[in-house]
Design a protein that fits this description.
The structure is a homodimer. Chain A contains 7 helices and 11 strands. Chain A is about 30% helix and about 20% strand. Chain A is globular, with a radius of gyration of 20 Å. In chain A, helix 6 runs parallel beside helix 7. The longest helix of chain A has 14 residues. By secondary structure, chain A is an alpha/beta fold. Chains A and B meet through helix 3, helix 4, helix 5, strand 4 and strand 5 of A and helix 3, helix 4, helix 5, strand 4 and strand 5 of B. Strand 5 of chain A pairs antiparallel with strand 5 of chain B.
Chain lengths: ~240, ~240
């Protein structure tokens, strides 16, 4: 969590968010009006936040970065539609792509693509069209919302698409609950990833390496993933 | 800056980094051995960090997130080649993509692509091949290192490529020194962006919107950019 996020929550009269994220900042909530909202209720939550912000300072809490699959866009849209001139600040955070990456080593390092496999707001055909182009870029691809009870086969389909453009030894990382309780990280390859899909759930982030990504041998520890930036083509080390 | 980054720097015996980033954490450096290294000396810096880490705890400082065009990969590579079993942690941060996005409103919101225009370590033809596929995805594209003294025309070329796949009213945001001294943000469109290329330098991040991205009218303030997540297709607000 950034210093600015901490400061903004500490200075707010009301804090509104999904219960999971409110629990993670429980120590900052003493003495504040706290409004717990549930998943799927994002539009109601944004409306409530704008309504409360007419008279008080309100913090809307998202996990990761609120501008990446978070609450920023819907709050700004609802505010715009309301016609109210209420000042608003989007406080950036550490998004799951780089939080997960840091637990694997340095799988992103340079250019990369972020794609969500959730088809709640984007049609599945459009997601697959984007995935196809992303894998053709041969840069690392980060999958958000890789798997849920209602979408058991999307991740397998994405891995099959990747395998058409990348060799089977391409590293794949699964990170569950990055920087949260119950954190787990695992490294496999595109050739073997399908066997381990059962380990992935909606709290996981999946990183599929690109051209040049390779397994990183940490001394003693489990394996990681590294995507060299290309210094090795110019320097000896 | 995250709490964890602050903690790690505070706990280190030596701190090594580019002078620009060391100056930003000057208040944390009292009593520590500080090694200022210059741009272009990343391999030497990584070697020095590994050498010092044999006997002391060392923090290598990057701007943004060290795993995105930062020092993480080269430090891990040098450490691996050294064969030394020194424990290492990559501390994630707020990368320029989301820092810049937050200053513009919510231009990313969902899927996006990150590409650097620097051809120091990636050939220009490869960068343009990636850009072409990225713009065909029609999701927002974030350009790092958009322009420097030695690369005055790369940004113009990238904007021309974008214009082949996206309409001229597509919003484009320039953010200079996001969350740092001298911060500036400006919003234009793909049709007019070329006229304003002179405002962009190596401290800027450029965000080119995707299908669905639009200008966001903030009450009173300058314009911003919003990429709706798609709630508007399912809800009334």
């Amino acid at each position: 969590m950034t210093g600015r996020a901490r400061e903004v929550i500490a200075g707010a009269d009301c804090v509104i968010g999904n219960g999971t994220y409110l629990d993670q900042v429980a120590s900052l909530l003493t003495g504040k009006e706290v409004i717990r909202s549930s998943m799927g209720k994002e539009v109601d939550r944004a409306r409530k936040a704008v309504e409360l912000a007419c008279s008080r300072s309100v913090a809307v809490v998202s996990g990761g970065d609120p501008g990446v699959y978070g609450m920023a866009s819907i709050v700004l849209e609802v505010l715009e539609h309301s016609g109210l001139a209420i000042p608003v600040e989007v406080v950036p955070g550490v998004t799951a792509a780089t939080a997960a990456a840091s637990r694997l080593g340095s799988p992103l390092s340079g250019d990369f693509v972020v794609i969500s496999l959730s088809d709640l707001l984007t049609p599945r055909e459009e997601i697959e069209r984007r995935l196809e182009l992303a894998f053709r870029m041969k840069v690392p691809v980060v999958l958000y919302n890789p798997r849920s009870r209602g979408r058991k086969d999307h991740l397998a389909a994405a891995l099959s698409l990747a395998a058409r453009h990348l060799p089977p030894e391409t590293p794949v990382g699964f990170v569950k609950n990055a920087y949260r309780e119950g954190e787990q990280a695992a490294v496999t390859t595109l050739g073997s990833a399908r066997e381990r899909i059962g380990e992935v759930d909606m709290h996981a982030t999946v990183i599929i390496g690109g051209h040049g990504s390779r397994i990183w041998k940490r001394g003693g520890d489990a394996d990681g993933i590294i995507t060299p930036r290309g210094y090795e083509t110019k320097y000896l080390y």
